[in-house]
Fold this sequence. Notes:
homodimer; alpha/beta; Aldehyde Dehydrogenase, Chain A, domain 1; Aldehyde Dehydrogenase, Chain A, domain 2; 2 domains; seven-stranded parallel β-sheet; four-stranded parallel β-sheet; globular
Amino acid sequence: xxxxxxxxxxxxxxxxxxxxxxxxxxxxxxxxxxxxxxxxxxxxxxxxxxxxxxxxxxxxxxxxxxxxxxxxxxxxxxxxxxxxxxxxxxxxxxxxxxxxxxxxxxxxxxxxxxxxxxxxxxxxxxxxxxxxxxxxxxxxxxxxxxxxxxxxxxxxxxxxxxxxxxxxxxxxxxxxxxxxxxxxxxxxxxxxxxxxxxxxxxxxxxxxxxxxxxxxxxxxxxxxxxxxxxxxxxxxxxxxxxxxxxxxxxxxxxxxxxxxxxxxxxxxxxxxxxxxxxxxxxxxxxxxxxxxxxxxxxxxxxxxxxxxxxxxxxxxxxxxxxxxxxxxxxxxxxxxxxxxxxxxxxxxxxxxxxxxxxxxxxxxxxxxxxxxxxxxxxxxxxxxxxxxxxxxxxxxxxxxxxxxxxxxxxxxxxxxxxxxxxxxxxxxxx
Amino acid sequence: xxxxxxxxxxxxxxxxxxxxxxxxxxxxxxxxxxxxxxxxxxxxxxxxxxxxxxxxxxxxxxxxxxxxxxxxxxxxxxxxxxxxxxxxxxxxxxxxxxxxxxxxxxxxxxxxxxxxxxxxxxxxxxxxxxxxxxxxxxxxxxxxxxxxxxxxxxxxxxxxxxxxxxxxxxxxxxxxxxxxxxxxxxxxxxxxxxxxxxxxxxxxxxxxxxxxxxxxxxxxxxxxxxxxxxxxxxxxxxxxxxxxxxxxxxxxxxxxxxxxxxxxxxxxxxxxxxxxxxxxxxxxxxxxxxxxxxxxxxxxxxxxxxxxxxxxxxxxxxxxxxxxxxxxxxxxxxxxxxxxxxxxxxxxxxxxxxxxxxxxxxxxxxxxxxxxxxxxxxxxxxxxxxxxxxxxxxxxxxxxxxxxxxxxxxxxxxxxxxxxxxxxxxxxxx
Lengths: 430, 430
C-alpha cells in the first residue's frame, strides 16, 4: 500500500506528476473496490467515523487555522460560515457516515434477468463507475460526504476541496485514510488532493486514462469552466430557475401553501421557486392573497404588466427577471393564458431543474408531467421537495441538470452504471 | 413547417449557418416530439416504409450513381459492398421500419413510483434525450435505422452519412421526410445533412445549444477524433478485444464449441473473440483439439510460450497481439494460471467490451461476473451474443464501450433518460 503524500512532502513536488500518481493509485484501487463486499465497505465507513470522533480536537484546531487565515484574507461572513466546523457539525458528519453505511449497497444488483430464445439468460448488473474526481469549494464536510458515497458505491475518488479549507480537509483526510486501512481497503480508494495549486484541477479534469467522471460542486462559473475544459464526462449542476404554475382549476389554499413554501422555505437553494406563473382567470382571486403572504415574509415581487394591473405596488419585471436565479427573497410573477403559455414560458426561460403545476384538472396534470422537460416535474407539491433525501435516495452527492446518465438528485445509484451479464450453458450463436 | 434543404440549394450556402439552421429546427422539433404519442410515431414509420417501397427505382438509381463514383475513386471491394443496395437490402430496410414500429415505446414509462413519508409520491419517467447527432460511414441503411430508432424514442436527429453514399442517403431522406409529413410530425424531427463538406461534422459536434449527444458509428480513428473534438457528450464504441477464458473445471465440449463459435462465427464483428485464455491444467487436453478445429476454419494461432510448448507449429504472440483487434481469422492464445491471472490479463489488455468464462465451478462463475469490468460479461456462452437483438432489445443503434449513461448494446432505452415525477396533493416542505 503506497502511503499518502502530506502537504510538506508536496511542497517541492511537481503537481503534474503528483496528480498522475493519484490517478494511477485510484485506477489501481478500482480492481479491489469492485470486489470489495458490502461488509468491508461498511467497516471502512464505521472506522472512519470512529477516527473522526477521536480526532475532534485536531480537526477543530485545523479548522481554526483555516478560519484565521480566511479572516486575514478578508473572506465574507457567508463563506466563513460554510467553512466553520463545530461539535454539532462534526456530530452530523459522524452521523452521516453511519447513514451511508446503513444504505443498501447498489453494487451487484441484477435487473431484468430474462431467458432468450437462444437459451441464454440476459440481465444488467450494477457496477461502480470507476474513478470519480470531485471538485468543490469551502465546505469541509463535503470531503466526508463525497468520500463516503463514492466508497459505498465501489468507486475510487480523488477529492479536491477549496484552498480556504486546506487544513480542515487534511485533518479529515487522515481519518478517511485510517478508516480505509483499518478495513483493509487500498489507500487509492479515497485520496484528498494535498496541494492548493490551481494546476491540480486542470490536471484532474484532463486524465481520461485515470478518471472516469468529474463532479464539480460549487458556483456556476467554476462549473462552466470545468465543463468547458474537462476531457472526461462531467455530471453537473447549473442553475435552478424553478417555476410554479397555478392553473385556473387550482385549489386556492393548496396554491397559496405551495407558492409560499416553494419561495420562502429557504431562499438560497437551487430548488427554490424563482418565477410564479398564474393562469389569467385566477389572477384577481389569487394575487392579492399571495402578495399579502409574501409581504409577511419580506419577499419582493417583480411582475409582468398583467400582474401589476392587479397588484399596483409591485415593481416591473424585465426580461432579465425571467431568467434570474435570485437565491434571495425576490420573486418574478407572470400572468399567463393557460397551460400552453405556461409551458412555453418554462421552456424558454427555465433551466430544466424543477417545475410544478398546481391544478385539480387530471388532463392538465398529465400533460404537464409528460411535456415539461425538467429533471423534476411536480403536481401539487412544493419545488423544495427536489432533494435526494426527500426522494428517498438516502443521500445525495448533488443534483444533476444534465440529461445523460443521471438527471435530478444523484444518490448512490447515480454513481454506478450497468453492465450486461449473460448466463449460458454452452450456447453458441447460430 | 420549414422545407428541407436540397443538395442544389446548398451548393452556395454557408455550412456554418446551414448546420445552425438544422440545429435550430431539431431543437424546435423536440417540443412536439415529446408530446407525440406512440400512434403518431408509428404512423410516421409506416409511412416511411411505404414511401421507401414506392421509391425503389429512384433509390437504386441514386445508389448506382454512388457506386459508379466510388469505383471511379478507387474504393475497395469491401467498402463498395457496404455501400451497395439491392432489392433484398431494401426489403430488409422496409422490414426494419416495421420492426421498430412494433417495439414498445419507452417514452412515458414510470418506474418505482413510491410514497414518501411527506405524503408525496416519487417516481422516474422515461423521456427522450432531445437532439441526437449521428455520424456514420458508407452504409446507407444506417440512415434509416438511426432515423427510425431516434424517432421511436422521441428524439430529433441530425444524420451525417459518408460522402460516398451521398446520393443514396439523399434519396432515402426524401422518403423519411415524406413519412414525417404524412404523420404530421415536424420536419426537424429527422434531418439528413445535405452537404458532404467536412466542416459540417466539426460544426455538428460543437453545438451544445442544439445537440444533446453525438453517436459516431465508424472506424476507430473517426471516433477518436470526434471524441476529442466534441463539445457535447459522445456515446461511443471503440475496440472490441474480447476474451474467452477456459477454466480448468470447464466442460471440454462446451469450451470447444464456444471458443470456435466466438472466433469463427464472423470475423469482422466487434464481439468476436480475439484472445483465448486457457487455464494451465487444461492446456494439454484442450489446445490440440482446438488447434484442429481452428485449422479446419483456416484460423491462424499466435501463442505464448506455454501454448507453443503444446502446439509446436504455432507462431509466437508478441505484446502487440494481446491488444490486437484482428477482425480477421487470427487468434492470440495464452496459457494462464487460474482465474486471477486470466482476469489480470483481461484488465490489462482488454477493451472492456465482452469477455466470457467457460467453467463448471459456481464460485468462479460468480467471481468472473462480478469482477470483470466489461460491458458484457458471460458464463458459458459465446461472446458473439453481445448484440441488441440477441439481448432482446429489438434493435440496436450500436454498442457502447463507454461507462456513463449506457454500456453495451444500445437500443431504444439507451436513447432515453429519466426525469423525476412528483405527485402531491398540496404538500409543502417542513
